[in-house]
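Cast an eye over this sequence plus tokens and walk me through the fold:

***
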Amino acid sequence: MISRNFRKVNLILSIVLILFFIQDTFYDIVIESEYNIHSYMEVILVIVMSILFVYQVREFKSLSSKLGLAEETVSKFKKELSSVINDQFSFWGFTPAESEVGWLILKGFSYPDIANLREVSEKTINQQVGVIFKKSHVKNRHEFVSSFIEDLL
């Protein structure tokens, strides 16, 4: 992914190079009155660089627009997915605490990490996980996570 700073540096560098060649061409043709192959090549180079610069700006704008649309789509998908997961938790009859633990399992946290985050003992988490697995009719965390992923694929 191209960062905003990279794009700015790229565009600034392009402008500097174009200006350098314009100045050099101007000096060769106007000041020194040189009309040789070198001068004509520089004029052609300035024209080509200018065209490429315009293309580059258009491409960056197009990519920015597409990125914005993609981010919007991902945001909508995340909200819908969260809603589907919460609905499934409700369907299984999870308590608020079980729902929180279920989310942390789905996010990939280990049981000790979940215990630390929730400020409870690991034994409490293990008991809640057992109830979660029983209510969701799975045997382990892999089946639990897979039950959500399978529906997406």
Remarks:
- The helical segments are 4-31, 37-92, 96-106, 111-118, 122-135, 141-152.
- The mean pLDDT is 89.
